[in-house]
Each structure stands twice: as C-alpha cells, then as structure tokens.
C-alpha cells in the first residue's frame, strides 16, 4: 500500500467526532494518525485529546459543532485557526445531515480529485466539464466551479464555492438551486486509510423541497462513484496530464507544505 501512496500523513486540523458524541461523562477511544488516542471533556466541558502511548495531550478544539484535533509529525503547535461557519449555528439552517465512509486512500488523492475538472463529466456524468477557478493562499485553497446540477426537474445551472483549510477541513457552499453548506472532513486513520465525513446543512425554507434533498443525494452519489477509483489508484510523481485535466501541478505544490519535509506554510506557497 505504501507503494501506492509514498506520502506521509499530512499535518493540520482533522475531525475527531461530532460535539454531541462526547458528553462530559464519556470517553472516546480513537485511532487516527497511526496512533491510539483518547478523547474526553474536562470538568469545564472543554475537549481534551490524549495520545495514549506517550501520555501527551494534543491540541483539540470544538468548532462548528465538530471536535477537531491538530496533528503535526514534528509536534509543532497549531499554525492556523479554523473559521466559524455562520450557517451551522443559525436557527434558520437545519441540523447536520451526516454521511460517513472509510476509504483506502490518502488525503492528497481526495483533494486532487476536486481540481480534476474532466472527471466530473466522464465519471459523474455532468452535462459538461465545469469551468473553475483556483486560488491558493498559504494553507487555504479556494475554488469556484460553475456547474449544472441534477434535480428532479432536470439540470439547473449553479455554483460551487470551495474553501479548504489544509487537507482536513473543507467548507463548500452550493448556490443556484437551493442554499446548501457542506463541511467535509477527511481524517487519516493511518497512511493508507481515511475516515471521511460529510455534514450538510440547508436553509430550513428550502429543506422540505425535493430539490434540497436532490442536492445532497447527488453529492453523496458522486462520493460513492469516486471511492472505487481512489481505492484502485496509484500515486504517480509525474503523471501524464492532458488538456482539461485541471490545475493538478499547482495543487500538488500547495499540498507539499503540509508535510514536514516541505516546511510550513509561507508566502512562497502563494499562487
């Protein structure tokens, strides 16, 4: 398997659990980053993350109704903060609709998939190869895609705005059909396996419509289609790219900052 992914576990913030899965009296044993961990709450309710083998506490926060842990192979302190997503705490938006997969792949492969424009047409069957824009700024990757989304009424033009904070937390906003926000998390269990969670929230005024449910079904459908490809794909340092494949080299340069051998995020990673 390591021959497929000659890449280390990336550094950054990664989802450990949902906030409501951890009460003050509970303890959650976890296996992430190739380590045995223990997640609990202090008497004051703050989440605490312990690496069991070393008896060492690791950085842990609660944000957007999710518990996040900081992983850094060299033991460095957190280098950025995760943003608050206003929709998650709004009374006008629905509680999370949750989906989860265990995937035999690497975080970099999952992120690379998002900038591969052509596969949306030829794997997921979209009406056309979507137009997209990519902006890289330190640890943040932003992208805008102009797409046609499937609904019970046929395909409708829409827009997808992606904001990735490292390789573990991505905030995606869908507009054009109905308002939908998706928090994606991809947490390395080890160097070969990723625990992926999708957390959807939608405007309550749209949530009862068939269109709102169709947006979620379509995103989940595409994830289900991608998994067999990721699980049978081998990472190539110098892939043979074609016109229309998307800005994969730029994405790979951005991804290098999350490995210790490439140093930390800096202005040289900005594009």
Per-chain topology:
Blueprint: E1 12-18, E2 28-32, E3 35-41, E4 47-51, E5 56-58, E6 60-63, E7 66-71, H1 86-89, E8 97-103, H2 107-115, H3 117-122, E9 131-137, E10 140-151, E11 154-165, E12 169-175, E13 180-188, E14 194-202, H4 204-207, H5 210-231, H6 248-255
Antiparallel strand pairs: 1-7, 2-3, 3-4, 4-5, 6-7, 8-14, 9-10, 10-11, 11-12, 12-13, 13-14
Helix pairs in contact: 2-6
Taking all Cα atoms into account, the compactness measure Rg is: 19 Å
- How far from one another are the termini? 32 Å
* Uncertain ranges: 118-125, 262-271
DSSP, total strands? 14
Which percent range describes the beta-strand content? 35-45%
Helix content: 10-25%
Looking at the structure, the CATH topology of the largest domain is Naphthalene 1,2-dioxygenase Alpha Subunit, Chain A, domain 1
Residue-averaged pLDDT: 85
Number of helices: 6
- The number of domains is 2
Please give the CATH architecture of the largest domain: Alpha-Beta Complex
Structural class: alpha+beta
Q: H/E series, N to C?
A: EEEEEEEHEHHEEEEEEHHH
Quickly describe the structure.
By secondary structure, this protein is α+β, with helices and mostly antiparallel strands. The protein has helices at residues 86-89, 107-115, 117-122, 204-207, 210-231, 248-255; strands at residues 12-18, 28-32, 35-41, 47-51, 56-58, 60-63, 66-71, 97-103, 131-137, 140-151, 154-165, 169-175, 180-188, 194-202.
